[in-house]
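seq:
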Amino acid sequence: MSLTNSTRRILVVRRENIGDLILTTPLIRLLREQLPNAHIAALVNSYNAPVLDQNSDLDEVFVYTKGKHAESWWGSLVARYELLRLFLKLRRMQFDDVILAEPAYTARNIRLARFVLGKPWSSAERRVIGFEHDDGTNAGLDVVVSKAAIDGLHQAQIMLLIANAYDITPPVGTMRDLPSCRVGRPKPPAVVGLTNPLRIGLHLSARKPSQRWPVESFAALAGQIQQAGAVKFSVFWSPGATDNALHPGDDEKAQVLKTLLAGTPIDVDFVQTHDLATLIRRLDGVDLFICADGGAMHIAAGLGKPIVALFGDSEPIRWRPWGVPHRLLQAASHDVADLSVDEVSVAFDELAAECGFQGKIRTAKIEI
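struct:
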């Protein structure tokens, strides 16, 4: 296959969580670099789609709403009808390749891919590309991506293995030598000034209980960091009530932190983000981010932000922040609650120094 002149029409299917889609963007970047004349599209859901807004590596993004994300039974019915219409539209577009960009082998995704391509009636040159099952099963795939050597690889590196289907060998080297994650368009490196306080993002929420750092620890950490100099905190959390069955949130936790910080000299802004696009836009305004492993962490990495990452029972090798300076902390118990404020404070100091932020903090302190 001539890479430079290839005009293949490629559909990348990534319908899972926010972080999963973000960790697929290095693959999309590599395909765009090596196949500049190809038509590359993505099929995603309405929940994760905002991370691809203005992504210049893609020619088209197709978005559908999952039935479980609809607000009523009628909305769920309409969502299923619109999904069928979208699948028919994709079939008419005559894609050459459908990439199932997730390491799980599922019969449902293979049926979708073969429907979009028109297989088994279409030309043999039109391909379903995807990972084999853990047991080696690969029925329905035209190009099989092996899982034989994925142990010890980051999720982004695993996704990059798909490029072998186009005779593209992913570059070998450190994380910073490989394509980075991308949320939106690429941005120039931030210039660290000395006139404004360092803006630090704190994210209170985590889906898994083992990833949740106590709100009292966030309050104590903000106090320790504030003592080093003038900084500005932006607090983020998942909106909603804790007992919301569909979208549980941390409004109560944010209110507790607001109460704990009331009357202190800590400069803090509590940021309401009721949709993913707003979260992305407001996260782009911070200089450094402190959070548990999760979707917000991967958004920050896609925006190029240095990160102090708190890990519970997830695998750091597979899920650590990709392509950005970071410090990763994981307690022996694999419970974030067992990480001390001092440990996180030290990690912050180290990362701030690595990124050249300490001078900004000290200068701001002198100017007070």
